[in-house]
Amino acid sequence: PIFQSLIGIGHIEQKNGNHSKSRDYFNRALEMSEKMVDKEGMSASLLGIAAGYSLQGNYPQAIEAASNALEMALERPLQTRDAAKALHTCYKAIGQDQKALEMHELYIQMRDSINSVENKEAVIRQQFRFSYENQAVADSLKHVAAINEQGIKIQSQNRIGRILLGSLAVLLVF
Questions:
Q1: What is the tens place of the pLDDT at every residue in 18-27?
Q2: Cβ neighbours of residue 92 under 8 Å, at least 6 residues apart?
Q3: Which DSSP string do the residues of 90-105 spell out, in sequence order?
Q4: With the C-alpha atoms ordered 22, 15, 88, 3, is the resulting torsion angle positive or negative?
Q5: Degrees (nearest 5) of the Cα angle 73, 54, 104?
Q6: pLDDT digits 0-9 by tens, 52-88
Q7: Integer Cα distance of 85 and 26 in angstroms
Q8: What's the CA gap between 134 and 66, in Å, rounded?
Q9: Cα–Cα distance measured from residue 174 to residue 154, given in angstroms and rounded to the nearest whole number
Q10: How far apart are CA 164 and CA 107, in angstroms?
Q11: Where does residue 57 rank: exposed (0-12), middle (13-18), buried (19+ CB within 10 A)?
Q12: Mutual orientation of helices 2-15 and 19-35 as an angle, nearest 10°?
């Protein structure tokens, strides 16, 4: 969707230090994702807005945007992790250590959850790859066995043909 492109442009502008431009792109992406009722897009847009405010030192507005992003992201571990990290940074910067600790713990929990899922997926991919390779080897061995069997049949037929030809030649001589 277009809002993802706007978010990408917003990140580029943010990295270049154009915070007002980046906020415009993030706000446009937020409006589009709200119209589409896309919580993932809304959360990503709000995280971009929060990052911009945080970079400018406007922590109250960064906290508001990141908190809204966290509400939108609760069913999505990656965005929950990112929102928790943003909130941790803001709370730590303004000296709210208890809230910073809570957000850091949420961040760690989501990070570990994501890593666990990725590890499980990697194990499953490895098992499929192993099964596929084993099946490929088994199929190759069957194919080689079939070719060898055909070769043996051909040799046998050639031998029979030579014996018949030799017998016929002996008969003709007699």
A1: 888 888 898 8
A2: 100
A3: HHHHTT-HHHHHHHHH
A4: positive
A5: 55
A6: 888 888 899 999 999 888 888 877 888 888 899 999 9
A7: 19
A8: 49
A9: 30
A10: 85
A11: exposed
A12: 160
